[in-house]
Amino acid sequence: MARVNKKDLERQYRHLKKQAKREVQAAMDRVARKAGFQVLRGAQDRAPVRDGVLRQSLTIGNRDNIFDLVLRGTKAEITVGTALEYARYVEEGFTQRKGQFVPGYWDDEKFVYVPGHPAGMVLKGRRIPGVHYLARSEAEVESIMDELVKEELDELARRLFPDGR
Questions:
Q1: How far apart are CA 110 and CA 104, in angstroms?
Q2: pLDDT tens per residue across span 102-140
Q3: Model-wide pTM > 0.85
Q4: Could you tell me which Pfam families the record lists for this protein (predicted)?
């Protein structure tokens, strides 16, 4: 008859429980990273391009970002954002100050801002709508989040239970 040492079984159970907890946390971190990269790609695709500075400035997890979108799970968190001050206005929109003079010149149908330029334009005070490049990307990723989590949990189950039981 085989003997079972209860203390060994309890020790193995605690070890498996601890290992599974670490694996679950790592899986959550992977899901947050995948979601973050998908939001980043979507935001880069949606960012309006005049010279590409805003698009190129979008990053994940940069501590210098002054405009962020934070994705939070129960414990995993990732930020997508930019250090450009004007990014918030492109995202959310703004209202021009009526009568404000903006120095620069028109090049075909594009206004080129040049500080100190003698010519320019006077703003009419209208509302400039936001592009919502980050919010739209986040909503898109939110709609597939269940799929991302399911894929990661299936992979986790394969790692924890390699024999399929």
A1: 11
A2: 999 999 888 899 999 999 999 999 999 999 999 999 999
A3: no
A4: HK97-gp10_like
